[in-house]
From TrEMBL:
The active site is at 172. The gene is TRM8. Residues 1-32 are annotated as: Disordered. This is tRNA (guanine-N(7)-)-methyltransferase. It comes from Ogataea philodendri. Pathway: tRNA modification; N(7)-methylguanine-tRNA biosynthesis. Pfam families: Methyltransf_4 (PF02390). GO terms for cellular component: nucleus; tRNA (m7G46) methyltransferase complex. Forms a complex with TRM82. Catalyzes the formation of N(7)-methylguanine at position 46 (m7G46) in tRNA.
């Protein structure tokens, strides 16, 4: 094992240990925790959404122990969460959007779902460190992350009509035609997204790949349960502004002066 690999191994093991302690802490009294360093959590850029990742998922949303993810919202009498997740960031990557949405929606629980293991661990450590650093105000208790494949088990995590917003920020483009079926927006998947979204809920999409943008727009346009929101609506919506600026991919695109294509859709009644 090279020096670099053993350093990364040591770092990951130490973080794993502190993660196990902090994860269950409601309002932790102990020491300050520093923000995790991204370079220790690198892994392959892509994860095949069709492989069997031995993912853990609940039988149904009520079988989830949500208290583990949002300990600050556990009702001490019932031991259960006093509210449900309402906002989901699908393929949240390194968690920039979650972190920026947290103070904007302090009363709502926001969940990132991410398929890559190390990336999920980075986001978990980032959130635990932020909670520690802001323990006086209880900030960042309302965001959490879960490792999961959004293309497979969404209705196992969320009840019908539970969500008010779903974000798809810079999803993997899967350029080749034979890989298009791996895209996170397809007709079948949109029906699942419509199931977990409430009427009036919004699907947010943003990408720097025009072909993928057209793909998402055409699938959403064709779906009977979604209606596109206007440019004026986008311009006044705080989340559109946030998703343009907050995510790690969005920042990379901005540094390279790339375009960002946005499309937002409202979940309409049947
Ligand atoms: C290009 S990155 C964008 C990350 C983030 N949204 C951003 O804008 O910085 C796409 C992310 O989606 C994740 N992903 C891809 N397919 C997924 C799936 N089926 N379920 C959950 N996450 C997925 C990838 O692991 C990757 O982190």
């Amino acid at each position: 094992m090279s020096d670099r690999q053993s350093k990364r191994k040591q770092y990951r093991e130490a973080k794993e240990e502190s993660r196990q302690v902090l994860k269950h802490a409601r309002f932790e009294e102990s020491q300050e925790v520093s923000l995790p360093k991204k370079r220790f959590y690198r892994q392959r850029a892509h994860s095949n959404p069709f492989s069997d990742h031995k993912l853990e998922y609940p039988r149904n949303p009520d079988a989830m122990d949500w208290g583990r993810y949002y300990p600050g919202y556990v009702d001490p009498e019932t031991g259960k969460l006093d509210r449900r997740v309402e906002i989901a960031d699908i393929g949240c990557g390194f968690g920039g959007l979650l972190v920026d949405l947290a103070p904007q929606f302090p009363e709502q629980l926001i969940l990132g779902m991410e398929i890559r293991v190390q990336v999920t661990k980075y986001v978990e450590d980032r959130i635990l460190a932020l909670r520690q650093q802001h323990k006086d105000t209880n900030a960042y208790q309302n965001i959490s992350v879960i490792r999961g494949n959004a293309m497979k088990f969404l209705p196992n995590f969320f009840h019908k009509a539970q969500l008010s917003k779903m974000f798809f920020c810079f999803p993997d483009p899967h350029f080749k035609q034979r890989k298009h079926k791996a895209r996170i927006v397809t007709a079948t998947l949109l029906s699942e997204y419509a199931y977990v979204l409430r009427e009036g809920g919004v699907v947010y999409t943003i990408t720097d790949v025009e072909d993928l943008h057209q793909w998402m727009v055409s699938h959403l346009d064709e779906h009977p349960l979604f209606e596109r929101l206007s440019k004026e609506w986008e311009d006044q919506d705080v989340c559109v502004a946030t998703m343009r600026e907050s995510t790690e991919e969005g920042k990379k695109v901005a540094r390279n002066n790339g375009d960002k294509f946005v499309a937002c859709y409202r979940r309409i009644a049947v």
